[in-house]
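Reminder: ligand-aware prediction takes two inputs, not one.
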Amino acid sequence: MNPTRLLTALLAASCCACAPRHAAYVPRARDVTITAVPLLTREMGRIYPFLGRDFAPGGVLEGREVYAFVPSTVTVVEGDTVRLVFVNPEDDAHTFVLGELAVGLPGQSVTRATWIARRAGVYTFTCNMAAHLPSMWGQMVVLTAGAVASE
Ligand SMILES: [Cu+2]
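Here is what comes back for the chain with copper (II) ion:
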């Protein structure tokens, strides 16, 4: 096919009238389970002897322990209702703070909360306990509804 005919054919295939359209996204409820996971805590000193020096005065982890939220990145779409289930399997308490949502996560508990993804953006959530910062955090990524095809 010569280049002019090929270009004409491609343009015809991609015109607005005949191009396939994606259905508009319909917001939905999404169930998300987030677990508080200890990564480097004092109790692990028996497994990792180097932690004794890390937690000692002047050590790189003095005054804190390393925990994570798993998953630490959650992706949803504008308008979604996010039904959060927090699992905290260990005996230390945590918190989950996402904007105006602040949830206490007692030790060895399952806690539920709901968050509405009102606007697209990237929102940081943290455990606000000083000994768990700066490591215990994550992000809620809210995609614009217009950028997502309905599933
Ligand atoms: Cu914490």
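The radius of gyration is 23 Å. The chain has two helices and nine strands. We will return to this case in the review session.
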